Amino acid sequence: MRGIALALGGTPDEFEGLLSLINQDDDITALEVRNLSGEWIPATPIPGTFVCNIGDMLKIWSNGLYEATLHRVINNSPKYRVSVGYFYEGNLDAVVEPLEVCVKKRGGNRMNEGAVYGEHFINKVKTNYVTM
Q1: Taking 60 as the threshold, does the pLDDT of residue 3 lie above it?
Q2: Model confidence at 132, in pLDDT bands (50, 70, 90)?
Q3: Quick one: pLDDT at residue 130?
């Protein structure tokens, strides 16, 4: 029951969509992201700002210039935590492929295969839940 695990803190996750904006409580650090060295680091709240999580689709469009953000929630605070997310998504039938300008920045090499937005989204979401 991954949905519950994420709410309480748990399973690391890459956002399957395009982009998410997260508004965190100013005084509770619970969101962590994994850096390129594989270390989990806190996404310490900065009052008046949003956390921007890059998703799989932006990784494809940017030809890997931007990586999807692996993140998790570990709330060790005794206080109730509120986090409000806005998820920016594409059309479900959109074909997502690396943008040519981004392919050129990688020396002409395509680092990612294309995907149909909705198919990718549904396939990834299916892995979020236990089948009983």
Answers
A1: no
A2: low
A3: 59
Beta strands in the chain (DSSP E): 13-14, 19-24, 31-34, 40-42, 51-54, 70-73, 83-88, 95-96, 115-116
**Full-model pTM:** 0.78
Cα–Cα distance for residue pair 83/74, rounded to 1 Å:
13
Q: For CA atoms 41, 42, 44, 50, give the dihedral sign.
A: positive
Between vectors from CA 48 to CA 44 and to CA 52, what angle results, nearest 5°? 60
Residue 112, phi then psi, degrees to nearest 5: -135, 145
Q: Give whole-number Cα distances, 18 to 22, 30, 118, in Å.
A: 13, 22, 12
